[in-house]
Amino acid sequence: AVIESLVRTTREAAAGAGLTRVALVGGVACNGALRDAMRERFGKNVFFPSPSLCTDNAAMIAKAGLEHYRRGRVRFPSMQPSPALKKAG
Fold first, then answer.
1. Would you say 72 and 48 are in contact if contact means Cβ atoms under 8 Å apart?
2. Where are the domains of the chain?
3. Distance (Å, rounded) from C-alpha 65 to C-alpha 71?
4. Rounded to the nearest 5 degrees, what angle is found at the Cα of 64, between the Cα atoms of 73 and 55?
5. What pTM does this model have?
6. Which of its termini does the chain have fewer beta carbons within 10 Å around, N or C?
7. 67-79 pLDDT per residue, tens
8. 17: three-class secondary structure by DSSP
9. Are the C-beta atoms of residues 37 and 28 closer than 8 Å to each other?
């Protein structure tokens, strides 16, 4: 359902902007099923970077947040760790 939604939204956005070519970038561009679905919909008019270049910036955002916290710029008084949380996936 997520892949269908992404393909549909991309198709609608491209059509609304008068575009015939699209690029899939960022961490999501590594998703093989999404790449396949986009190829099926856009054919040769979809472009992907090499998977080694498809990164997610979550680590950079986390590092920036940590630095702000260490410098006392941000506090999370209501945030409590929960060891009972299950690992995603």
1. no
2. 2-70
3. 10
4. 160
5. 0.63
6. C
7. 988 998 877 667 7
8. coil
9. no
